[in-house]
Write a structure and sequence with these properties.
The protein is mainly α. Helices cover about 75% and strands about 0% of the residues. It folds into two domains: about 150 residues, no CATH class; about 170 residues, no CATH class.
Length: about 350
């Protein structure tokens, strides 16, 4: 057993939740952003200004979703070059066979194929043949066997959440908003989760609301400690920066969570905010304004033109209400002594 552990360590294979559920899922989100999401944004821009070349560029980027996810995961798992490059074919197969749940199928298959490739990497005199062969065969065979059921299961869960949100927009608005926001601040990827489940429509709008509540909420709450740098890094970067402070004082998490519980049902019941753009945008919040771009992309695809109410709802749910409600709740906690000086100061 000791020799096997030493071998795994030599091959840089770590059987840990951090590597597979945090590092790999974070990389999955980056792969999605670099292909499907950016492709959709470029395509939408091309459609709006009437430039066919941009539409074509966007289509090509969109089609590379699977390979981009797989290669990004391989990079996060420290794959050797021959393993990393072979994952492109694995990602294409997993996404193609996984259907609506393709991103989740690629995630599972790419992790396994990558680690199998690393097991044999640089251990034979014909490494240039063995390593890509093992990586590709394991990955593509797994894609054929398990990508369709994984895709169907993910699609079913996503459809169930979206259907439940339509039937019970108030309660599901709260649930989806809170959970998506919490996932965004935790060291996991809310964007990858939303993409894996194909979360769009009203449920996608609730997820956008929850993520914005966390990012804008923490950015405004901590302004006195972190000033403009903190406002930008959290407001259009990530609220994950507050995780060390949350561990020290979990009470600082109350305002953004309560805010998401308020803005979620407002998004679903009052403003009928939907994200009908890429599902990955549902879990991005105000990060690079991707959540808002996703909502706008959905408007372009499904509406003749967004109304004034659409724009007011987007502004209130994504920016104004998260800032006002979180700040008010934070000041109350400061008066109660639940939040002390520098509790929200970024490391």
């Amino acid at each position: 057993m000791g020799k096997f552990k030493a071998f795994l360590q030599k091959q840089d294979i770590q059987l840990s939740a951090k590597r597979y559920f945090i590092d790999a899922m974070g990389a999955m989100a980056q792969g999605l952003f670099s292909s499907l999401l950016i492709g959709t944004i470029i395509k939408t821009l091309g459609q709006q200004i009437g430039v066919d070349l941009l539409v074509r560029v966007g289509d090509f980027a969109f089609k590379m979703c699977g390979p981009a996810i797989a290669v990004a995961i391989g990079y996060a798992l420290h794959a050797a070059p021959l393993v990393l490059f072979s994952l492109a074919a694995v990602g294409f197969a997993g996404n193609d066979l996984g259907g609506a749940g393709g991103p989740l199928a690629v995630y599972v298959i790419a992790v396994i194929a990558c680690e199998c490739g690393k097991l044999v990497s640089k251990h034979t005199k014909v490494d240039i043949l063995v390593t890509p062969a093992v990586t590709t065969l394991v990955g593509v065979l797994l894609a054929i066997l398990i990508a369709p059921p994984i895709g169907e299961a993910a699609g079913y869960v996503g459809d169930l959440i979206m259907m439940a949100t339509k039937l019970q927009p108030f309660y599901m608005g709260i649930l989806v908003s809170v959970l998506a926001g919490v996932a965004l601040t935790l060291p996991i990827s809310s964007a990858a989760i939303c993409a894996a489940l194909g979360l769009t429509g009203l449920a996608g709008g609730a997820a956008v609301a929850g993520c914005c509540a966390q990012m804008v909420g923490f950015a405004v709450m901590s302004f006195r400690e972190n000033r403009w740098g903190g406002l930008v890094s959290q407001g259009i970067g990530t609220s994950m920066l507050q995780m060390p402070n949350i561990i020290k004082n979990p009470l600082i998490w109350i305002p953004p969570i309560l805010t998401s519980a308020i803005t979620g049902p407002l998004a679903t019941c009052v403003f009928h905010l939907e994200n009908n753009g890429p599902a990955v945008a549902s879990g991005m919040g105000t990060c690079g304004f991707v959540g808002q771009i996703g909502v706008y992309t959905g408007w372009v695809e499904t509406k003749a033109a967004p109304t004034a109410m659409d724009w007011v709802g987007l502004a209130l749910i994504c920016f104004v209400l998260p800032a006002v409600i979180s700040l008010a709740l934070c000041e109350l906690e400061r008066k109660l002594g639940w939040i002390q000086k520098d509790d929200l100061k970024l490391p």
